[in-house]
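Many introductory courses stop at the sequence. We go one step further.
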Amino acid sequence: MKEALDEDLSYEDFLNLILFDEVQYKKNLRRQRLLKAAGFRSQASLEGITYEKVRNFDKKLINEIAQMRFLEDGINIIIHGATGVGKSYLATAIGNHVCRSSKSVMFMKMNFLLEKMSLARAEGTYLGLLKRIHNVDLLIVDDFGIKALTDQQFQDFYDVLGERESGRSTILTTQLPSENWNEIIPDPLVCEAISDRLTANAIKILVKGPSKRSEPKKRLTEIKESET
């Protein structure tokens, strides 16, 4: 109201301003709900990525991913590298960006996803869980390949990928390159099927460098100062 009076807006312009503010308010509420529902375990942003040569990040590729055409085309992203190099940060940063563009994301550690599916089967809600997994615009599975999968677990994961196959994108972080996935999926036919569904036409990002977990964490004030 004060802005309208100060700028001497016409009645029509005043209504347009109110409508614009209402639309922006609803968009912000939706983004907040999407970020909360995503289940991110840490804060990360594409703007916070440091393109150190040692990390092997391709700035041009990251900028292309930020355009989110991979979502429109149903293309997966495989992020692999040693422990602590920033795989989860990159996956979370992409997911955060997708949420802020008003699209839905589901972030889960691989072990937690498998536990959730096992519990859903016991409770009779397995198909409902698969439907929720299908409906999100982007699924992020973190820490794939930490330990070998049982027969039931790789069947469950195969079901998840089956739900994502119809044009839905998945981001997978792993320490294992795809050619070594037979170490955790002993059945050669299932391993080939899972590998094909995840890696065919996928964007593959290899993250290098020493573990960032050994680096001292910056205080919030230091982070703010470095951004100014």
